[in-house]
Amino acid sequence: MERPAYVSNKNESVRMFESNFMEFFSHVHPVTPVVLYTPVVGYMLYASFAYKKLSVLAVAGLFVVGVLIWTLLEYVIHRYVFHYEPKTRVGKFLHHMIHGVHHDYPNDASRLVMPPVISIPLAVFFAVLFAVTFGRFAPAISAGFAFGYVCYDTIHYATHHFAMKRGVWLWLKQYHLRHHYKDDDAGYGVSSPLWDYVFRTARK
Q: In the chain, which residues have pLDDT < 50?
């Protein structure tokens, strides 16, 4: 009996690189973002209070701003980078490596979160950008941004491999899986469909 497309198979995978070294780093345990960035969130919140002397209300508001910035970035990257259709051979290879392989093998449990070799440089880049742009408010915004990223990777893994049988969790699972199996030109939000509604790319 053929396995339905939406049923999880954690062993579903494909080799991406001839090099064993490169292949090793293309597989990431799903708990990696939680382990790496939860301490970052905690430290940034601590810095907001201890060093920047911000109030609880200010930190809470800035934290939400950081989460919103992440969800917007998540939407933009998914829509305009991950689903860009390159014409060149090199472009097609890079697209397949970055996101195409996920659509071909959506239940590959070791390729559902961003590899640290990519996420860490990006985290440093945005931390510096926020520091330059937002000054003393940067740590609180960075905390929300990092928290949003952790939620994104965690929810993305969960939609493919957790039951999520009721409530908002079931809705998020169905929303994302429709992107994979019915219409990949809509539903770009994974952790939140907010920007899909703003930019009219939500499911009809």
A: 1-10
Contacts for 2 with CB less than 8 Å, ≥ 6 apart: none
Q: Are the beta carbons of 181 and 8 closer than 8 angstroms?
A: no
| C-alpha distance across the termini of the chain, in Å | 32
Query: Could you tell me the residue ranges of all domains in the chain?
Result: 29-154
In 51-137, which residue ranges form alpha helices assigned H by DSSP?
A: 56-76, 89-95, 101-104, 116-134
Alpha-carbon torsion 104, 97, 173, 157, what sign?
Answer: positive
Distance CA 204, CA 201 (A): 9
Question: Which amino acid belongs to residue 136?
Answer: R
How much is the pLDDT for 134? Answer: 97
Tell me how crowded residue 13 is: count the other CB atoms within 10 A of its CB: 16
How many CB atoms lie under 10 A from the CB of residue 188?
23
Angstrom distance (rounded) from CA 190 to CA 86: 23
Kindly report whether the global pTM for this prediction surpasses the value 0.90.
no
